[in-house]
Amino acid sequence: xxxxSLRLCSPPLLCRASLSNGDNHHHHHHHAxxxxxxxxxxxxxxxxxxxxxxxxxxxxxxxxxxxxxxxxGYLYAQGTKPAEALAxxxxxxxxxxxxxxxxxxxxxxxxDHAAVSALLQAGVGRVVVGxxxxxxxxxxxxxxxxxxxxxEVNVLGEDFQSxxxxxxxxxxxxxxxxxxxxxxxxxxxxxxxxxxTLDGKIAASSGHAAWISSKLSRTRVFELRGRSDAVIVGGNxxxxxDPRLTARHGQGHTPTRIVMSQSLDLPEKANLWDVSDVxxxxxxxxxxxxSYQKFLxxxxxxxxxxDMLNPxxxxxxxxxxxxxxxxxxxxxxxxxxxxxxxxxxxxxAFIAPKIIGGSKAPSPVGELGMVEMTQALNLIDVCYEQVGxxxxxSGFLQPVPDLLPVIPSEDxxxxxxxxxxxxxxxxxxxxxxxxxxxxxxxFSPHPIRMPYGDDDYRTWSSVEHYYQANKFVGxxxxxxxxxxxxxxxxxxxxxxxxxGRSKQRQQPELVRSDxxxxxxxxxxMALKCKFSTYPxxxxxxxxxxxxxxxxxxxxxxxxxxxxxxxxxxxxGRLLMQLRSEYLGESSxxxxxxxxxx
Length: 597
Ligand SMILES: NC(=O)C1=CN([C@@H]2O[C@H](COP(=O)(O)OP(=O)(O)OC[C@H]3O[C@@H](n4cnc5c(N)ncnc54)[C@H](OP(=O)(O)O)[C@@H]3O)[C@@H](O)[C@H]2O)C=CC1
Ligand SMILES: Nc1c(N[C@@H]2O[C@H](COP(=O)(O)O)[C@@H](O)[C@H]2O)[nH]c(=O)[nH]c1=O
Description:
This protein is an alpha/beta fold. It folds into three domains: 28-177, Cytidine Deaminase, domain 2, CATH 3.40.140; 186-396, Dihydrofolate Reductase, subunit A, CATH 3.40.430; 410-587, YbiA-like (Tetracycline Repressor, domain 2, Orthogonal Bundle). The protein contains 19 helices and 18 strands. Strands 10-9-8-7-11-6-12-14-13 form a nine-stranded mixed sheet. A five-stranded mixed sheet has the order 2-1-3-4-5. Helix 3 (83-91) packs parallel to helix 4, helix 14 packs antiparallel against helix 15 (478-488) and helix 14 packs parallel to helix 16. The chain starts with 10 loop residues before the first helix and ends with a helix. Ligand AOF is lined by residues 195, 209-213, 217-218, 221, 233, 237, 241, 243-246, 329, 350. Its EC number is 1.1.1.193. GO terms for molecular function: 5-amino-6-(5-phosphoribosylamino)uracil reductase activity; diaminohydroxyphosphoribosylaminopyrimidine deaminase activity; hydrolase activity, hydrolyzing N-glycosyl compounds; NADP binding. In the C-terminal section; belongs to the YbiA family. It is an enzyme of class 1 (oxidoreductase). Residues 32-154 form the CMP/dCMP-type deaminase domain.
């Protein structure tokens, strides 16, 4: 299984990294077991949700070689015993030689190596990790430490082509979505929740809104609150509803309440000004109603003034205060403003089977400035669930970013190109041939001469031509031979790609059986030939030293980086590897020269 981890340093390993190899059967068996234990770890990791304030979710399952669960654990709150240590305690003697499943790489926040030490001391033989730690300063170090102690560590996602493992990895991403957002954006993870009637109103035209959704739905809302660092509403909701915004399940975590109000034209008496159990923060425009600000302060309500009171500024502020997860329970005006400033990641809508009517009655989202239905924002990964009489529809406005593939993890980057410091590197994107660095694209018009058949050489109009044709090389079928010729003589790289892909889809029997094993190698050879043939391309490649190269293809999730960074970026990786080879050669020749002198 070690071959599954991404080691791009030496070409012989390339084909092993491409996975679907001879012992498929064996692997599939492992994949299913690994996937189910990782999912279990992800589920466990969420057990403290609602009970403690949002924190990174860690779960650990220890399984015996025969596949039985020996022990489990999850991190209960910040500063409590690590999941791994709890699981090791529960499993006792059964740890020796077992496999530990972690939804996420441990983060050694306090320098005591508690999680890793527990696993090492217990004699765990193998560790499977769902995702690497998303925070830069922790990412990769626990994995490196365990490997350096001889433990086999497998990270999902570095084994991309198995559907079950991808599903399990997705669970790991979802369960720590807020933390992942923390790692790659400057705002906390935000969820917009509203309750509306079947005719799309969030209140009667009078403004009365108690209640649209059922009691059961409202209990679910308390749960959502319990999983958030803060609940936020606008001034109008305070005036209209006088909400309490507490998580009234008797116990557990209660979020801070935030009110955004420009005017500070707010009541003297409001439930939110009672801060005996939970705190309230009012975010307002600098200089608004100073006397009222004093009044709030006397009540114990914190007032924060902003030069520009808008959702983005406010969210950036709370990000800096360490908030991971925010629940927006505002009306349509503020919701629209939050959506347009791009701070809402997920939407949760309770739809009650009621009709209230009213052409002036408010709706969940106010003006977004869109004029055509084609501009509508589409939710991703939508879920539908019945809650009592209501329907709960939820989905993402922005996918959970997947940090792993595009920017290889610290270890992987180092293995691909030791000269790149992942903490200081910039990213160079390339895709269309006419853009800056467009010559890195496989569509660039740089013919290559490559061996064909036994010792015959042929010229291919582009790397793409060569790569596509190779899918059908060596197959004993005249139709396969035709394909090769059609691709070789295709007028453009685009047409070569089109023929190659459609033939592969329509007539998979024409594709060489070892294609998945050799495709990375084939690509690497073609790239090497291209960059060695054209000195100016080699110079351009060398000039990018220190940067991470990413093919910005939005569709190709294997060779490219994908639209949201979800792709594996193998083309970028191979170019970085080639670059590092060239850098190595030039330093060797420089050494030789100095010796000769
Ligand atoms: N069914 C449901 O799920 C819910 C229903 N409601 C209902 O919605 C109605 C209120 O809707 P609505 O007025 O939209 O709600 P909000 O009060 O939640 O949002 C508008 C208010 O937010 C404040 N605000 C501060 N900064 C901004 C900004 N940049 N952009 C926009 N607003 C900002 C302003 O307060 P200020 O005026 O003080 O400056 C503004 O009046 C009520 O009838 C309430 O009952 C509300 C929440 C949920
Ligand atoms: N009317 C309405 C909701 N409205 C939201 O709940 C807030 C009231 O919270 P609290 O004072 O804590 O009960 C209110 O201000 C608004 O944000 N929510 C729902 O799930 N269903 C409903 O029907």
